[in-house]
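User: Batch of two.

Assistant: Item 1 of 2:
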Amino acid sequence: MHRTVMPKRFTSMRLANVADLPDPGARGFDPCEEGRDTLFVVRRGEVLRAYRDACPHFGGTPMAWRKDAYLNGDGTRIVCHAHGAQFDIASGECLLGPCLGQRLTPVEIEVTSGGEIVLISA
């Protein structure tokens, strides 16, 4: 089982600007320079959520089937590529699939007045 170890607090680590994310859309990030995305940010309108890039069902399997491909076709749910589980964007709760009722692990971000997405804790 691969476990991502991330520092508990970052001091103002900029990830991107809100304008860098499609709407709806998602983008993965590798803040600890592990060579793969360890978290992702989802945008739906003005709402942004961030989660660890690890499916709760299968030992932390990365979610995307290709770079930044975290959402279903109409951009309404997060999807795990490994087994098709679908998650609510706002809560991270699994709505369909083998991990029904489990949740993605949230990551704390904030958006500055200039639209910068900043990682607060992971």
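Item 2 of 2:
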Amino acid sequence: MGALLGALLASWLAPKGIAWYFDPPVNIGVNCREATEWSMSRLLIAQFWGLIAGVVGSLGVATLFRRKRARMNQDL
């Protein structure tokens, strides 16, 4: 449970920290903050869909194993 909480906090806080890191304190003509914020938002979207796919896939595999176990118990 702690690992899940840590992953959620990192997903929430890390993009802001990374975007801050790429924002130069003085105007040097190059600022990557917008590109970094965009890429971090895409990363969060990919993580969300990966989480959804993992939940759906895990439920599917668990259902298959339960059915197989039920058939094995009926054969005994």
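The mean pLDDT is 82.
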